[in-house]
Amino acid sequence: MKVLALLTLCVTLSLPSQAALIITGVFDGPLPGGDPKGVELFATTDITDLAQFALGVANNGGGSDGVETILPSQALSAGSFFFVATEDQDFAQWFGVAPGHVGGNGINHNGDDAIELFFDATGSFAGDEAVIDVFGDINTDGTGTAWDTVDGWAHRNDGVLANGGAFDANNWTFSGPNAWDGDDNFDGGSDNGTNLTATPPFPAGTFQIPEPTSTLLGAIGLGLVCFLRRKP
User: Fold this and answer.
1) Calpha distance 110→57 (Å, rounded)
2) Which pLDDT belongs to residue 9?
3) Residue 229 falls within a domain, yes or no?
4) Is 133 domain-assigned?
5) How many domains, the chain?
6) Contacts of 47 (CB under 8 A, 6+ apart)
7) pLDDT score for 18
8) Which of 207, 205, 198, 203 is nearest to 179 (CA)?
9) 66 lies in which domain range?
10) Is residue 232 situated within a structural domain?
């Protein structure tokens, strides 16, 4: 039992603390009205109620606007993705599926706005909610910055977990601004473009948390060996 307890402790100490839900993608589409606009979210652990989470857009570097759209009350399994968009019709055309939640103006970013992810265990969002993750700088207009996603997208690098409100552009991959210009029209059709025909396409549903490395497993094994050698 002591060996099992030590192994559990080693694994626990080796893994970083993490929010159950993180922002893994942000996109600003080329269809009329700049659609689809929205975010991709990822569950790092099982979530019993998404209504404990909410999103808000900090427009034009003017600081936090607080909670603007609360996610629906439903469960989300670990490893699952959840899309929030401003509308559903253009989103469905672009990605081929319906969004999980239509947040309307509550997620209406313009490619140069920061996006905050909030958590409140009570689901009341009465003002004491916590910012658990953020894309961009809420006090900076993103135009011309590394995280400028106008007519393009940003995607979180594998293994990078919630930042608690401290954004680092080095943890993301970007299409570059205006990368989707012209991708609204495909093969001569008007406004019939899709993510699959866009260049480059947004890598939807690809974020991963890597399995423990051989180095980590080796360190745990070494700890067990040391423990066993010290047993009376």
Assistant:
1) 10
2) 37
3) no
4) yes
5) 1
6) 20, 21, 53, 75, 76, 77
7) 52
8) 198
9) 19-211
10) no
Whether 162 is in a domain gets the answer yes
Q: Are 177 and 126 in contact (CB under 8 A)?
A: no
Q: Is the separation of the CB atoms in 100 and 88 below 8 Å? A: no
Ranges of the chain with pLDDT below 70: 1-18, 212-232
Give pLDDT, residue 68.
Answer: 97
